[in-house]
Design goal:
It comes from Streptomyces seoulensis. This protein has helices at about 10-30, 50-65, 95-100, 105-120, 130-145, 150-155, 190-205, 275-280, 305-310, 370-375, 390-395, 405-410, 410-415, 425-430, 440-455, 460-470, 480-490, 495-500, 575-590; strands at about 45-50, 70, 90, 185, 210-215, 215-225, 230-235, 250-260, 265, 295, 315, 320-330, 340-345, 350, 380-390, 395-400, 435-440, 515-525, 530, 540, 545-550. By secondary structure, it is an alpha+beta fold.
């Protein structure tokens, strides 16, 4: 039996375990991961964060002959970070896939859409402005997406599903928010296939002695000497067998300090830290929801933002964020409060928690953040889709590599089966998910909706009147209903008509049933602001000067410049932002350490 030896309740056995663990951790830091032999410094560069941006930066540094240490607080199982779990969507302009689909896209049209969505308004022309470098990054990124981005990735073996998706269709004006044309290219193999070529490059560099992993190394501080970055320090965490995405132990077994003239921070955003999300929530989006679900693993905690700020880095645009409005509670969660997003087609009717239909641009797939503001303005944390089996069979897709086994596993037969049946992951959520109500009549559906929430906010007569009014608009090829216009617009695009838009029909048509209501939760996801960087990925201080030796890339840098997306994303730009900013920072850091 253990006996307490201190008022804190620590037992003798626990004390011996911790002491032994700390000794083991010291040995782990010193011997299991030795410094590169014969050098006064441990590496030419240290990269903090082994997600996609970190892998890209490390690959670039190693390719230039630099010796790199890649650190992360998570175990090896989580290599690739959040990108592994993604749908693999990438933003290209005037791609081969677009041309195949008959889509005419240009750099100028994409830049018009980017500016209309970003709404840069914080000192674009002022070198001290929050949007000064964000704007420059946006220019560079649209050039990249219109130019070498696709050929660069194709040269690494990445391929894409030939039907281009049309995400974030916008608010209704040509120069406003949204994609004027389809630009969402789904990677064949989803997120894992985007991560794979860079993971292979880094593992090859490790095998060649040019790089080394430091799993379970949590950075707690960036070391500076004479105003310049000279390394990092932190805690060695106990070994963990946690599967990818599962929370891992935070038990400390040792300490470390590693030296390098360059540190590249690629640690991701704040999506799993709801306290930070609420702390930075902007007034323009209303009151933060009391209840949210989480679209990223628990380790996406935002710690490195404050740590880098203490080292002199400037954080800009912290109130800009990207959360989804169509979140489902995962019936088989991987991480705490795990949510999955519906990527909807245009046909489901969208209502607030009281059963009032949203107006434009709060239509499925049109304007994520405007709809988020409408939901918070309703005074409730959730909203509803009212739809049909015919619609979900063709229009519902779920975010995440694990929710798309056909695309992720490159299974052509399974992919083709979507033509004649509802995808199995959708049916599993309909059967097992707590957010679905299925019924044969509208009265039964309303009863189920009210039972699910327990608040009896939905009035049958009111809901029926709104659905019948919309259904009457289906009798002609023209209409005054903006959503019906959008459906007909979608059906005129071959990609949507083939795979993402159900034939136009009445919601209350019995042959399209059963009726389905889906409770939609707010799902945390991306940080749009972050560390301000110049076009080389160098982190800037409050005076706008680079902090010597400090770089950042990926979500922690607002995907470049501290906010390349501005206020809104065009979608398919998050993975691309990690790729581009990781490449920029890696190449610049390699040049800075040339001898």
């Amino acid at each position: 039996m253990d006996h307490p030896i201190a008022p804190s309740g620590i037992t003798r056995r626990r004390a011996l375990t911790v002491t032994g663990g700390m000794l083991a951790g010291t040995a782990l830091a010193a011997h299991a991961f030795p410094a590169f032999a014969g050098e006064s410094q441990d590496a030419d560069a240290i990269v903090v964060g082994h997600g996609l941006a970190g892998l890209v930066a490390t690959a670039e540094l190693a390719a230039a002959g630099r010796k790199v240490l890649l650190l992360d607080q998570e175990p090896e199982a989580s290599l690739g970070g959040q990108a592994f779990w993604s749908f693999g969507g990438l933003f290209f302009v005037n791609s081969e896939e677009q041309r195949l689909m008959g889509v005419k896209d240009t750099h100028d049209l994409a830049w018009q859409d980017w500016l209309g969505s970003a709404g840069f308004d914080r000192g674009v022309a002022d070198p001290a402005g929050q949007d000064h470098w964000a704007y420059k990054w946006a220019e560079a990124y649209v050039d990249f997406a219109s130019g070498e981005k696709r050929s660069w990735l194709a040269g690494l073996g990445v391929q894409w599903f030939p039907i281009v998706g049309w995400a974030e269709r916008g608010g209704g004006l040509a120069d406003g928010h949204g994609n004027s044309v389809p630009r969402f290219h789904v990677t064949w193999g989803t997120g894992p296939a985007v991560v794979e070529p860079f993971e292979k490059k880094v593992r090859a560099a490790v095998a060649a002695g040019k790089a080394a992993f430091r799993f379970r190394h949590r950075v707690d501080g960036i070391v500076t000497t004479g105003g310049a970055v000279t390394g990092v320090r932190g805690a060695v965490l106990e070994p963990s067998g946690a599967a990818r995405g599962k929370p891992s132990s935070r038990t400390v077994i040792g300490e470390f300090e590693l030296r390098a003239p360059v540190v590249v921070v690629t640690s991701g955003g704040i999506g799993a830290n709801h306290d930070l999300v609420r702390q930075n929530w902007p007034a323009r989006l209303g009151t933060p929801p009391k209840t949210m679900i989480t679209g990223v693993p628990a380790h996406v905690d935002g710690r490195m933002l404050a740590i880098t700020e203490r080292a002199g880095g400037r954080i800009v645009n912290p109130d800009r964020m990207w959360h989804y409005t169509e979140g489902l509670r995962n019936y088989d969660p991987i991480w705490p409060d795990h949510g999955i997003r519906i990527l909807p087609g245009p046909s489901s009717m969208w209502f607030d928690a009281t059963g009032k239909r949203f107006g434009t641009p709060d239509i499925p797939g049109y304007d994520t953040l405007h709809t988020l503001g409408s939901i918070t303005a309703s005074g409730h944390d959730y909203s509803w889709f009212v739809t049909t089996q015919k619609i979900i069979a063709k229009e519902f897709a779920l975010s995440g590599s694990e929710q798309n086994p056909d695309l992720t596993n490159k299974n052509v037969w399974q992919l083709l089966s979507r033509i004649w049946q509802t995808p199995e992951p959708i049916e599993k959520f309909k059967k097992n998910g707590v957010d679905f109500v299925v019924a044969t009549t509208l009265s039964e559906l309303v009863a189920g909706m009210n039972k699910l929430t327990g608040d009896n906010l939905i009035d049958l007569a009111r809901l029926k009147a709104q659905i019948e009014a919309r259904d009457r608009e289906m009798d002609n090829p023209y209409t005054k209903d903006a959503q019906v216009m959008g459906i007909r617009n979608a059906l005129s695009y071959i990609g949507d008509s083939l795979s993402r838009t159900a034939p136009a029909h009445r919601i209350l048509d019995p042959s399209a049933g059963p009726l389905i209501a889906v409770r939609l939760n707010v799902l945390t996801r991306k940080t749009l602001g972050g560390l301000q960087t110049d076009l080389s990925g160098r982190v800037l201080n409050a005076s706008g000067e680079p902090v010597p030796g400090l770089y950042a890339a990926g979500e922690v840098a607002g995907f470049g410049g501290g906010g390349v997306h501005g206020y809104r994303s065009l979608e398919g730009t998050f993975l691309g932002g990690c790729l581009f900013s990781g490449r920029q920072a890696g190449r610049a850091a390699a040049a800075a350490t040339a001898t």
